[in-house]
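Q: what sequence does this backbone want?
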């Protein structure tokens, strides 16, 4: 099992990033890798020992899967670590750690490091997880536009 590391910088405060990363309604707006997929359902108990479930579904109904796991570390505005539920053929669940860094200028750096899986290539896994981070960034931009419009009204 190889570790894969991806990162992104987003134009949002650490508080806003944390909120939208963990809020179930927000998760449904960004937790998928392409425009042909969606996240119709999410659960999130962000506590050590708490569980999460993110359902990713093809919009055409051709495929769907639940991404699930258990939190083993939660440090507000700093880091989240979880163990994914075991997939078929896995001896143990894979781990993922997410670091959130306040860059001090209204931007936040997000770094994800996770254990690879055996089914898909490292490149495909990296691309898929990176696409989800890019979706998160787009979600934040759209949320900022909504916030600006709401303030003006």
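A:
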């Amino acid at each position: 099992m190889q570790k894969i590391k991806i990162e992104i910088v987003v134009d949002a405060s650490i508080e806003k990033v944390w909120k939208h990363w963990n809020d179930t309604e927000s998760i449904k707006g960004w937790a998928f890798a392409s425009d042909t997929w969606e996240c119709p359902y999410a659960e999130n108990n962000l506590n050590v020992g708490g569980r999460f479930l993110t359902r990713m579904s093809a919009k055409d109904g051709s495929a769907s899967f639940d991404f699930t796991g258990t939190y083993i570390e939660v440090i507000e505005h700093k880091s989240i670590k979880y163990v994914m539920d075991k997939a078929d053929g896995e001896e143990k669940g894979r781990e993922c750690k997410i670091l959130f860094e306040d860059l001090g200028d209204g931007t936040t750096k997000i770094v994800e490091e996770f254990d690879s899986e055996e089914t898909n290539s490292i490149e495909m896994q990296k691309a898929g997880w990176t696409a989800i981070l890019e979706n998160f960034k787009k979600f934040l931009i759209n949320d900022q536009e909504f916030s600006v419009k709401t303030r003006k009204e």
